[in-house]
Amino acid sequence: MGIPYALKASVLVMLVVQPGWRSVAGQCIRSEDHQEASECCRQKPRIPKDIAHNCFKENNEKGNLGPEELMVCVLNCAYNAMGVMNEAGEVIAEKYISSLTGLEGSMVAVVTNAAKSCADISADIKRDIENVESSCNLYPTMYQICVTQLTTSNCPAEHWTKSPICDQVKAGAQPC
């Protein structure tokens, strides 16, 4: 059985578009602008490139995963490879934080606070995914979405891209 459509759509939009956006009357981010919107808060990747590449290759070779399921499995693989999960498949915030490299200045505090806040709602994340069928553990994906949302919502000014699309994101526009 696959991931339900509503969750697929949510995961894909959250991973690609990095929301955290609130509804603003008359504004929405068009699909052709989602890439730009996802880059409004400039930040270093949280998963080392070699791990991401190896996990993508390993899971893509299975050949039976749709794009959303593939992303879920890649994140699960990457979090395991980074050693940031416990035996129950939950992210350990302290290990996640210590695995981050290349963060500088105020971004360190923003991502650290986001990681801790998302760990604090671990029970909620587990409850939300407990009845969802997936080829791989959904917890790392939902944790990553949480960290991304909080990081984007609290993005330091020096990391924020000034553009009309990013102004819409900051104002709370949602994807169309």
UniProtKB/TrEMBL annotation:
GO cellular component: extracellular region
Alphabetical list of InterPro entries matching this protein: Odorant-binding_protein (IPR052295), PBP/GOBP (IPR006170), PBP_GOBP_sf (IPR036728)
Chief location category: secreted
PANTHER family: IP02236P, ODORANT-BINDING PROTEIN 59A-RELATED
One protein family per Pfam: PBP_GOBP
Gene Ontology BP terms: sensory perception of smell
One GO molecular-function entry: odorant binding
Keyword match rRNA processing: no
Compartments, as annotated in UniProt: Secreted
UniProt protein name: AGAP006075-PA-like protein
UniProt record similarity statement: Belongs to the PBP/GOBP family.
Keywords, alphabetical: Disulfide bond, Olfaction, Secreted, Sensory transduction, Signal, Transport
UniProt KW Disulfide bond keyword: yes
Signal peptide limits: 1-26
